[in-house]
Amino acid sequence: MYRLADVITESCEALQRSSPVPLYYQLKEIFRSWIIAGRFNSGERFPSESALQKHFQVSRMTIRRALTELVNEGFLIRERGRGSFVVRPRVQSQLRRLTSFTEDMQLRGLRADSKFLDFCCVRDAEAARKMGVAEDEELVQIRRLRLVEGEPVALQNAYVRHALCPGIVEKGLIEGSLYKTIEDGYGLKLGRALQTVEAKPADEYEAGLLGIGVGQPVLILERLTYLANGEPVEYVRSSFRGDRYRFVIELVR
Amino acid sequence: MYRLADVITESCEALQRSSPVPLYYQLKEIFRSWIIAGRFNSGERFPSESALQKHFQVSRMTIRRALTELVNEGFLIRERGRGSFVVRPRVQSQLRRLTSFTEDMQLRGLRADSKFLDFCCVRDAEAARKMGVAEDEELVQIRRLRLVEGEPVALQNAYVRHALCPGIVEKGLIEGSLYKTIEDGYGLKLGRALQTVEAKPADEYEAGLLGIGVGQPVLILERLTYLANGEPVEYVRSSFRGDRYRFVIELVR
DNA sequence: AAGTGGTCTAGACCACGTT
DNA sequence: ACGTGGTCTAGACCACTTA
Predict the structure, then answer these.
(1) pTM of this prediction?
(2) Do A226 and B91 touch (CB under 8 A)?
(3) Structural domain boundaries of chain B?
(4) Which class is domain A4-86?
(5) pLDDT (tens digit per residue) in A20-37
């Protein structure tokens, strides 16, 4: 037997109608907190739209917007005629998110360092071709050895279009993060990236810097990053130690 | 100078109000076709909501729903006070989609084959632990060598919970596809998967079946698949030839 | 000031599943 | 018959950008 009233009235959350935060967003966060706090078992019925509408005194469309976003984020599923159901053993989100190495390690609570090998303006026909820009366009090359907890983990070779972040070589990176610099330093909005992953034997250069034997497997990540408006901004090729790095992603059907 | 009327009136699409297909969906497909057909350059203004509303004679919310879904799919961006803008050099979608090996290869127009090595009921404590089910639960083990255009590319070792697809060993797979069998044969709805990728040297077993040297790099993909209701359904561990397979994903900021 | 997208309302009818 | 979610309408006010 399921009693909506019990679930809802246990909550002490209240909507702030004068807040600049939209109502649907406040509701979404309230619902999300219910689910994360374990107020429901997985597969259990979520309160119906009309029950929520009555309780929060908002229009049905506002409730629906909150619920729809939670469906898109994988916290709920809805079935016509039956109701909304909680999906609890939630696969962590953030796994499809475009993150920098720095952000990645911060999320896992690890200390990340960089050793700069190169930071200069260049013209590189191959990188330009991958980005789909003119072959003689000026690019900023940033070659770094990435360390986690003091151990070398990856070798990164990034190319950024100089036209989008002029003077970056002189100003340097904000907090050592290229993405933070692009976003906060130049006010650009990162959008999507296309990334390929493959496995290869390490060559002498990689082996030497990563401290592994020649021929040991390395993960090659190639990433082409676009701004929100669709312009290409960055091309990176990274070599990760196969024995120190594992790549996790979430897939949706 | 931008003239909305030109863009819109060039279209001969019409809404079918009696169709069971929702209006917002018809609109979405029309807008998507405009963008894919190249009616706009990348970054160009898309017609405003009010212009579209007048032209199609539907309410603004219906227009907005169509536009919102295109924004989520990366075809448009919207800026308050400025308008909606087309993002054309569209990174292919489908790259975050949960697909089977068979579907994957079909999408690329390649011929995929399988050589069954195992197809039987087992109990496997490690696989059960990964799925988070009782260690003595009955699982169906499917071990296959995957071939593309006649060449061995991957070794897959999948475990499916027998309780969710009873009799699968006797009935066999539909069109050689495990996911098709799960969905069409048993009416289950696949949801999400969590996948890890790493690089390792091939052991003798892998090397022998894949036709590569021992110690050559292989990509190890581990996938834990859930149904739409959150229940775990499958655990697969695959070894892909490093020199024949490259993994592509799309990341969003 | 005008135009844009962002949010919100209070209704409506429908298709579907359960009782 | 009833309750559920799915779609749709015709308004409203707001914040923001651009002219």
Answers:
(1) 0.72
(2) yes
(3) 4-86, 101-241
(4) mainly alpha
(5) 889 998 999 899 888 888
